[in-house]
Amino acid sequence: MSKNFNPIIGISTGDPNGIGIEIILKSLKEKNFITNFTPIIFSNYKLINSQKSIFKIDCKIEPISNINQAKANCINVYNINDKEFQINFGKANELGGEFARDSLTTAANYLKNNEIHALVTAPINKNNIQSDKFNFKGHTDFLESLIGGDSIMFMVSDNLKIALLTEHISINEVTGMITPSLIKKRVKIVQDSLVNDFKVSSPKIAILSINPHVGDGGVIGDHDDKILSPSINEINKNGIKVYGPFASDSFFGSKLYKSYDAIIASYHDQGLIPFKTLAFGNGVNFTAGLDKVRTSPDHGTAYDIAGKNVADPNSFKSAVLQAINILKSRGKI
Question: Would you state the pLDDT for residue 231?
Fold first, then answer.
């Protein structure tokens, strides 16, 4: 796939009973938005056309059966099957998971084979997408398995970037998972991504503590004193600017996060709650650490508003633009 200035952006639909197709079509209907890239939705053409009618979206949809048929300035739909789909907005069911899985796996293989420049994924339901052949907790670990490499979920916006030491695991597993080797590996992924994907020449990275108040000198716990702090000191000796551990309860309210190029939280909610509070609707989930580019909006299937034609497409638009910017930073387009 040769370099050009009109990258092909593949799009997976997520669960059709959520808001995925709605936000995709609302974003791509804007002709000015798709001027600088060629979108290809990997889905069932009848399904896309049906939701276009439901939401009364005025846009041109072009069915294609070969990736080379994709046209500029329109919404290309690569027809992955001709199955019938009974839309049931707001409901998680087996058929919705099957369609989401087929869309994602098809698009991801085109990404792996360099037939699209980047992949933007609409939200899946992590439960109904499971099958005998798909046993992953989310997009990140699926893509890592398919493409190879060490990936990390990197939540990014214009003013805030948050990664995680541990991602989709239960809270009682967190302390056992955080080891010096994991900390070093994840810091290195974030460091490399800041330099290569976001063009930060000398990044400053903050790490949030495992225990409340950084353990209060061992009163609450000694994980920070025995694991995080020594690891941070060792990483600094290798020339990477890492600071902490910081108590998370005041880190964001005090605006301290603005002093760093990225923050690494110890566990999922410690990082995702402040990110979605400060950047929700414009944030992007970027799979850092791979040699392929994948982004997604910062929200889920939103079953509670599915089918009501009120879903905000801004985060999906941000995901597309972020993917293009990362491709440019990497010199791919």
Answer: 97
